[in-house]
Amino acid sequence: MALANLASRSTVPRNGFACPVPRLHRTATHACRALNQKQGYGEEVSTRNPLERAAVSIATAAALVMGTFSPLVLEPPAAHAILVASDPIKNAQAILRYALPIENKPIRQIQKELEGISEALKVPGSKSLGPVSRAVRAAQDVLSRQRDAIVKDFAPDKKAAGLASIERLQAGLNEFQAIVEAKDKQAVPDKQRQVLSYVGDIEEAMVKGFPFQVPPEYADRPLLLGRATLQMKVDCAETPEGPRQVLQTIVLDGYNAPVSAGQFADLVARGFYDGMEVQRADGFVVQTGDPEGPAEGFVDPATGEIRRVPFEVRVVGEKEPIYDFTLEDLGRVNEQPVLPFNAYGTLAWARNEFENNSASSQVFFLLKESELTPTGSNLLDGRFAVFGYITEGQDALADFKVGDKIEYIKIVDGAQNLKNGPKA
C-alpha cells in the first residue's frame, strides 16, 4: 500500500487493474520525446539506477502506510537538489491563472501585484494597508501605460470581451484604491478576488486556439480543448452544522491536461458520478469513482471494456505534456508541473502504483494538510495526473465522510470545449 492506494478504495488492487500495455513494451517514442525535451534545456538526465528508484518507492510506501514521512528516508543526490520558492502559490484560482498559455508581461505584472496583496494582509492591523495601496497603484500604473500592449495580445474573436474586462478592471482598481484610503481592511480580500477575476478574464481573452497537438494515439479520446467549469452537489450526513448539502465549483484545465480533463468531463456528461458515494475520506484525500459491480472503472459501452486514462503531466517551461511516463520514471522528479498539488482541493486521477496508464474513473481531491505534501515539493507532483481544482467551497471537503452521496456533477460552462464526448 503506497501512494498508489489512491488507485482503489480496496487495500489490494483488483485483478485486472493494470495498464493494457505492459510498461516494458510501451512505445519508446514517448520516453524519447520526454527525455529530448529535458535535454533540450541543456540539463542532464537522471542517472539514478532502478534499485535506487525502487528504494525510494518502498520507503515512500512505508511512510504513507505509517502516516508519517521523514526526510531521512532517502537523501537525493546533490545534483538533483532544488530551491523551493519561499512563497509557492497555494490558491487554486491563482494557479489556474498562471497556468494559462499566454506570455503577455504587462498583464502578468498586474496579476503579480494583485496576488501579492494576500501576503501583505498577513501583517496585523492597518500596517498592511500601505503595501496594499502600493500594489493597487502599481497595477493601475501598468494598466495605464501598457494598455495597448495588453490589447494587442487579444485573440481576434475575444477582443470585445477582453476590452470589456479591461474597463471592469480599471473601475475595480479605482474602487480598490478608495477602499484602502478609507482604511477598510475587511473589504480588501473581497475586492482583491474581484479584480483578480477581471485579470483572469483578460488573460483568457489572450488565448489563441489550443497551444499544442494531442498525440495521434490519444486524439480520438474525449478531449477538453480549453477549460470547463463544473458544479458538484454533495449530501453530507454529518458536519459540525448537522446534515447539509454542499455546492462546490470545479475548474478543469484542458489547456494543460486535455486528455485527463476530457475523459473526466466525458464521465460527468454521462452522469457517471451522479448518485455515487464518497468512498475514501481519511484526512489525506477524498476519493470516489469506483462503480458498483466487479469493474473497477468505467466500462465503455462502445467497446464493452474498461476505458483507461493515459498518464499526462505538463512541466513548467515546456510546450506540451509528457504522456505515459511519470517524472520519476524519467529521472525528473525535481521539476515542477504546471498543475501542482499546491492547493486544497486539487483534483487528480487515482491509479495503480506500477501502472501509469491504469486510471479509469476513480479520482481524488487532496486535503492539503499533510506533511507529505509540502507546497512546491511533495511526493505527488509528477507521479499523479492533476487536471483541475475546486475553486469554490473546497473547505467543505474536510467534512466529507465515507458514504456521503454525490447528488450530481454537471458542466455549467465550457461544454463546447469537450470534443469526442458522449453521443447525443
TrEMBL record:
<dbReference type="InterPro" id="IPR044665">
    <property type="entry name" value="E_coli_cyclophilin_A-like"/>
</dbReference>
<dbReference type="InterPro" id="IPR029000">
    <property type="entry name" value="Cyclophilin-like_dom_sf"/>
</dbReference>
<dbReference type="InterPro" id="IPR048563">
    <property type="entry name" value="CYP38_PsbQ-like"/>
</dbReference>
<protein>
    <recommendedName>
        <fullName>peptidylprolyl isomerase</fullName>
        <ecNumber>5.2.1.8</ecNumber>
    </recommendedName>
</protein>
<dbReference type="InterPro" id="IPR023222">
    <property type="entry name" value="PsbQ-like_dom_sf"/>
</dbReference>
<keyword id="KW-0793">Thylakoid</keyword>
<dbReference type="Pfam" id="PF00160">
    <property type="entry name" value="Pro_isomerase"/>
</dbReference>
<dbReference type="Pfam" id="PF21329">
    <property type="entry name" value="CYP38_PsbQ-like"/>
</dbReference>
<keyword id="KW-0413">Isomerase</keyword>
<dbReference type="GO" id="GO:0003755">
    <property type="term" value="F:peptidyl-prolyl cis-trans isomerase activity"/>
</dbReference>
<feature type="domain" description="PPIase cyclophilin-type">
    <location>
        <begin position="249"/>
        <end position="424"/>
    </location>
</feature>
<dbReference type="InterPro" id="IPR002130">
    <property type="entry name" value="Cyclophilin-type_PPIase_dom"/>
</dbReference>
<keyword id="KW-0697">Rotamase</keyword>
